[in-house]
Amino acid sequence: MGTDPVSHFIQVRDGLRLHARLHGEPDDRRLPVVCLPGLSRTAEDFDRLARHLAAEGRRVLALDYRGRGLSAWDPEPRNYDLQVESNDIADVLTALGITRATFVGTSRGGLHIMLLGALRPAFLAAAVLNDIGPVIDPAGLTRIKGYIGKAPPLPDWDATLAALKRIGAGHFTDLDEAEWRAYAELTFQEKDGRIVGRYDPGLMVNLAAMDLDKVPELWPQFDGLAALPLLVVRGANSDLLSPATAAIMLARHPGAALVTVAGQGHAPLLRDAPTIDRIAAFVARQDGQAGQVG
């Protein structure tokens, strides 16, 4: 297979068909890596990181949650819920024979890691939390709530790139034109002659109902990761994971390490070589632990 990904489609417990990308081959000497994307993001966000890890001889799974990427849309938008998705993750891992892995979670994916630590800890050997913590900054949530599921279809890629820059240029200050174009292609897709998001707009239903003044803090769930090796990645311009929260995370988890990605906001794209190298080195250090993938 080399480093080219292979798509797998798995029917989960309620019958919905989900998509996962698998890179690399099984190797009993190396723990697999499971990559969980952000709220409206897809498995392809991890493509550059996954190819790097697979080239080192490691199996990597990246998941499209229901309603995102190549996974089926749910006819009931309220099922775009952390608990439902957590069950989906467990179903996909079981179907693909993954019993234990290092998890990399971007934003919502990091919330899933914390929930798995509380509900299904046997899956977790180590964790990378990408720009997410137990306290979510309301400013970032307000910004996300303002555009998820609300963007109209766009006529062409030039208009799409301009729209993405309007939303993100203040958060991603170091991207060149080629990187902006790659970011746009990971965020949008062409469908019926128009450019649209790569997710079901129904994602906005639960988000719209969220009271931003009552978002719970997840310190107990974060503390449940205390026995695991932990790497925290934070965008220097992030409006979702504050420096203060990141500092408390390191204080409460003395074995944790922090990587700050300059020039990027929420969430770091995990496409630059220094960040990929740091994650790859962290992943490699976990290989003494038991783990396998079918």
- Poorly predicted spans: 290-294
In percent terms, what proportion of residues is strand? Answer: 15-25%
**How are the strands of the biggest sheet laid out side by side?**
1-2-4-3-5-6-9-10
How much is the average pLDDT?
94
| N-to-C SSE string, H for helix and E for strand | EEEHEHEHEHHHEEHHEHEH
Helicity range of the residues?
25-40%
- Biggest sheet record: 8 strands, mixed
CATH class of the domain at 6-137 and 216-284: Alpha Beta
Radius of gyration: 18 Å
Give the full name of the CATH homologous superfamily of the domain at 6-137 and 216-284: Alpha/Beta hydrolase fold, catalytic domain
Number of strand elements = 10
Which class do the helix and strand fractions yield? alpha/beta
Q: What's the tally of helices?
A: 10
Spatial separation of the terminal alpha carbons: 14 Å
Give the CA-based shape.
globular
CATH topology call of the domain at 6-137 and 216-284: Rossmann fold
So, CATH architecture of the domain at 6-137 and 216-284?
3-Layer(aba) Sandwich
Task: Describe the structure concisely for a colleague.
This protein is an alpha/beta fold and 294 residues long. The chain has helices at 47-55, 82-95, 108-119, 138-147, 157-168, 177-187, 204-209, 219-223, 243-252, 273-284; strands at residues 6-11, 17-23, 33-36, 60-64, 101-106, 124-130, 188-191, 194-197, 230-235, 257-261.
